[in-house]
């Protein structure tokens, strides 16, 4: 899947999923948020910021969201997002709205520079790689937006969802990888890897490190994990990318008792997306028992 933004194409899956700032921990670049008056006109230049704003801000605070806000393949809050204006992928569309806060991702640095030069307050966010960082993120963003109680409440929901998943975790643990189109696999330092660990699904010794990498068919068939985690339907080889996922030998080795489904949109971001993803993973574990 290719996501477009900031004048460039960004591969969410398989090649460059993390590059859109998909999973966010708030990193304030403007000092102590508690000492600043809560913003009244916020623009999101980012997929994950869209969802966090919808969960934590007053509707009246949201001036506009990113073009991805209503894409159901990427976001879990599309129905709520439909009520708000959408920006274009350029700084002009943001400046024209005269926001008092812009939330951007870490790959949006040229736009950040332009917006800062225009006198706008910009807050950049950083990647979230585990559930603890996701909880910290929503608490900090709640403070920034003037709603610390909402951030604390969402952090508590994430904790409860994590505990509920841990209560049904596989024992003993099994190995698993997240397999995407063309043989791309999520890395051991990704948010989805942290989610799987809570469920009792750990990376095999040959798992790709960092945010991920490719695994060839031979390795999967001869030294693959116990379980495959698929992030998109693979009902047929409709294109070259899907051909890998529908390979007869792969399907024979990993039948429905050795594969589960966890949509990509549930692993791209913290906040509401992570909350949904933890629930989906809890349900999917039933297939492996």
CATH homology-level superfamily of the largest domain: Nitrogenase molybdenum iron protein domain
Query: How can the largest sheet be summarized?
Result: 5 strands, mixed
> Over the alpha carbons, how many angstroms does the gyration radius reach?
19 Å
Shape: globular
- Overall tally of domains: 2
CATH-derived topology of the largest domain = Rossmann fold
What's the SSE pattern? EEEEHEHHEHEHHEEHEEHEHHEH
Supply the number of helical segments.
Answer: 11
Q: What features would you describe in this structure?
A:
The structure is a single chain. It contains eleven helices and 13 strands. The protein has 289 residues and is an alpha/beta fold. The protein has a five-stranded mixed sheet. It has a four-stranded parallel sheet with strand order 10-8-12-13, with helices on one face. Helix 5 packs antiparallel against helix 6 and helix 6 runs parallel beside helix 11 (271-284). The radius of gyration is 19 Å and the shape is globular. The relative contact order is 0.16.
Quick recap of the structure?
This protein is α/β, with parallel strands linked by helices. 36% of the residues lie in helices and 17% in strands.
Q: Which helices and strands occur, and which strands form pairs?
A:
Blueprint lengths: L1 E4 L2 E4 L12 E4 L14 E3 L2 H10 L5 E3 L13 H4 L9 H5 L5 E4 L4 H9 L4 E6 L3 H15 L2 H20 L6 E6 L4 E3 L4 H8 L2 E2 L9 E3 L2 H7 L3 E4 L9 H6 L2 H6 L5 E3 L9 H14 L5
Parallel strand pairs: 4-5, 4-6, 6-7, 8-10, 8-12, 12-13
Antiparallel strand pairs: 1-2, 3-7, 9-11
Helix pairs in contact: 5-6, 6-11
């Amino acid at each position: 899947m290719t996501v477009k933004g900031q004048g460039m194409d960004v591969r969410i899956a398989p090649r460059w999923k993390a590059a859109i700032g998909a999973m966010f921990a708030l990193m304030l670049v403007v000092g102590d948020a508690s000492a600043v008056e809560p913003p009244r006109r916020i623009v999101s230049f980012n997929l994950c910021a869209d969802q966090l704003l919808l969960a934590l801000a007053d509707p009246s605070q949201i001036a506009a969201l990113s073009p991805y806000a209503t894409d159901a393949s990427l976001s879990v809050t599309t129905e709520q997002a439909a009520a708000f204006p959408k920006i274009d992928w350029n700084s002009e569309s943001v400046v024209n709205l005269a926001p008092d806060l812009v939330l951007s991702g870490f790959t949006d640095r040229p736009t950040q520079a332009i917006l800062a030069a225009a006198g706008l307050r910009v807050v950049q966010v950083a990647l979230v790689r585990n559930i603890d960082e996701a909880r910290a993120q929503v608490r900090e963003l709640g403070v920034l937006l003037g709603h610390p109680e909402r951030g604390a409440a969402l952090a508590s929901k994430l904790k409860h969802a994590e505990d509920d998943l841990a209560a049904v975790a596989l024992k003993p643990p099994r190995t698993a990888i997240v397999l995407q189109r063309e043989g791309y696999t999520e890395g051991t330092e990704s948010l989805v890897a942290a989610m799987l660990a809570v469920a009792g699904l750990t990376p095999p010794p040959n798992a790709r490190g960092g945010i991920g990498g490719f695994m060839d068919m031979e390795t999967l068939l001869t030294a693959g994990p116990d379980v495959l985690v698929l992030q998109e339907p693979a009902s047929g080889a409709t294109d070259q990318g899907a051909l890998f996922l529908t390979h007869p030998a792969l399907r024979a080795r990993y039948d429905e008792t050795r594969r589960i489904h966890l949509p990509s949109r549930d692993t791209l971001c913290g906040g509401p997306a992570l909350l949904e993803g933890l629930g989906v993973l809890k349900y999917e574990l039933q297939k492996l028992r």
